[in-house]
Amino acid sequence: MKQLLLTLFVSLFVYSSAQAETFTMVFPTTPDKGGTAYWGNLTLKHLNNKLKKYGHVVVSKYIPGQRGKKALGEFVNKYSKDPRSMMLANGGNGEAFLIEPIKGFDYRNYAPIGLMNTTIWISSQTSYDPKTMIAKFPSSGGTGFASDMIALGMLTCGPDRSYRVDTYIKCFSERLKIVGGFKSRGERRMAFINSLLTASRATPQSTMMANKKIFDAGTHGVLFSHGIRTLDGGKRLDPNAPKGHQSFEQVYENTWGVKPSGDVYDAYDLFQAFRDGFQKTIWISKDSKHREVIQLAFNDMISDPEVKKDLDNKLGTFDWYTGLAVDTFSSSLFEKITKKKIENLVELAQKTFKYKSAKVKPELF
With b meaning 16 or more CB within 10 Å and e meaning fewer, what string describes 258-291? Predict the structure, then answer.
């Protein structure tokens, strides 16, 4: 009871002492395409409902382009100094942060409001045998594909050829055919549905919405979920994925009889941690006086059983973090960065998924 009264007192104090504000949330996408927009629009609807009692509202600013990097640049230059502005960062942003120039954006310069700790699913034709078959996998029609390419490459190359970076790169060129040219997620999804791609990737919610018919028909299915990151930087099984397919590590060990390891796996583990751990995150300037009230509303949102039920039904059952938990989780990811992992990631980026802008960023160390 004392805790409840204290919470009510703090909430009423914030509500009564703060002027009504209109906040801005920058989206690295268009309003109606892909998992980032779907997650952001749904989250913002519920967050705004909880912000009402504090007298505030959030409006969206959509900035698509350059695999999400354009929005990061505009946030840094136009919005980051405004304490009322927030950045919704996605998985492609997380990958880019580690190996590409992203127009001055650095997560460590900002404070997290909250996040949904989610993942990506790789789906394939059910006839696909990673040990014997070459896979056709997309490189366009979305963002944040690099972690998926590395994982699928390790799965098909096996322990002998995926332990070291040099042998992995050679195997990757032989065992994976990377297909580009998709102008939209819709084109990519249709190519997968029509079996022009052996495998593809999407968020869990997008996977189930787009692929229900072919999954029900048995021609395609979930190959693996990447798994769920934990607060200490580790990984656990994804409870939303089919049994036996609940993490990359689980499927790799079932396929090859050993756990994945080596330089390529260590680089992948870092890459995937940032891609999925920061796949759906909201950031604000560290000195923003509004962070506390927005986090109060965020906590109200994820603590409301009816709201959480709606989020789980539409997005999957994942953990949501704010307050101390989101700070702890973010710190655990930053602590995973090492120079060796970044150097290996850059070599993989340049020679496998052909990121011309990939480079080692000294400011990370």
Answer: eebebbbbbbbbbbbbbbbbbbbbbbbbeebebb
Q: Give the separation between CA 246 and CA 234, rounded to whole angstroms.
A: 15
What pTM was computed for the model? 0.91
Q: Are strands 85-90 and 22-27 parallel, antiparallel or unpaired?
A: parallel
- In whole angstroms, give the CA distance from residue 306 to residue 46: 11
Placement of tokens 């990506």 in the chain: 120
Average pLDDT (355-363) is 93
Reduced to 3 states, what is the DSSP secondary structure of residue 87? strand
**Could you give the CA distance from residue 62 to residue 33 in angstroms, rounded to a whole number?**
11
Q: Where are the beta strands (DSSP E) in 65-168?
A: 85-90, 110-117, 121-125, 135-138
- Confirm if 258 and 159 have CB atoms less than 8 A apart: yes
pLDDT of residue 12: 47
Phi-psi group of 144: left, alpha or beta (phi > 0 → left; psi -120 to 50 → alpha; rest → beta): left
Residue 71 tokens read as: 């929005």
